Amino acid sequence: MLAFAIQVKAKCQSPPLDIFWKCSFFCWELLSSPQLYGVGYRQLQLSTESKVAELLHQNKLKSFESERAQLVQEETAKNLSQCQLECEKYQRKLEVLTKEFYSLQAASEKQILELQSHNSDYQSRLGAYEKLEKELDEIIMQTAERKPTCIALLSFLYYAEDIFII
After folding, report:
1. Contact 136, 163 (CB under 8 A)
2. What is the pLDDT of residue 69?
3. Structural domain range at position 69
4. CA distance 148 to 157
5. Is 99 inside any structural domain?
6. DSSP 8-class letter at 32
7. In a domain, 25, yes or no
8. At a CB cut-off of 8 Å and minimum separation 6, what does 8 contact?
9. Number of domains making up the chain
10. Is residue 145 situated within a structural domain?
11. Do 5 and 25 touch, CB atoms closer than 8 A?
């Protein structure tokens, strides 16, 4: 019995179990002489052994729960660090895409301004061509009504030369 108790005590070193073991050894020493206590000794021994087994079982259960909680905590910490790395990666990606967006926006605004400039240039040219076409139509109508004269033709050519000079 003493050898078993020493083995059990070596496995369980928590403070409540330590107090239990001191009480158990005290009782064991008192009851070690069967002449004094006889039958009570055997009952006390059985109850002590069952309490020891119960406490060992509880200790094993608490140890298992502690190990499980530690594993869950480690897994949670691992997932947290992985999520933080992914978050940092996505933040850098967002920064790159934001810079690219602003760059493309500036380029498109520049291109829009260039196109508007070209459009206004083409609008002014179109206005000049329409004016020239109108004058040409008038000259053709005048020419159709009378015979072409040199003066009308020369004035047209003179005016057309001023328009086409760039």
Report:
1. no
2. 96
3. 2-84
4. 13
5. no
6. T
7. yes
8. 21, 52, 56
9. 1
10. no
11. yes
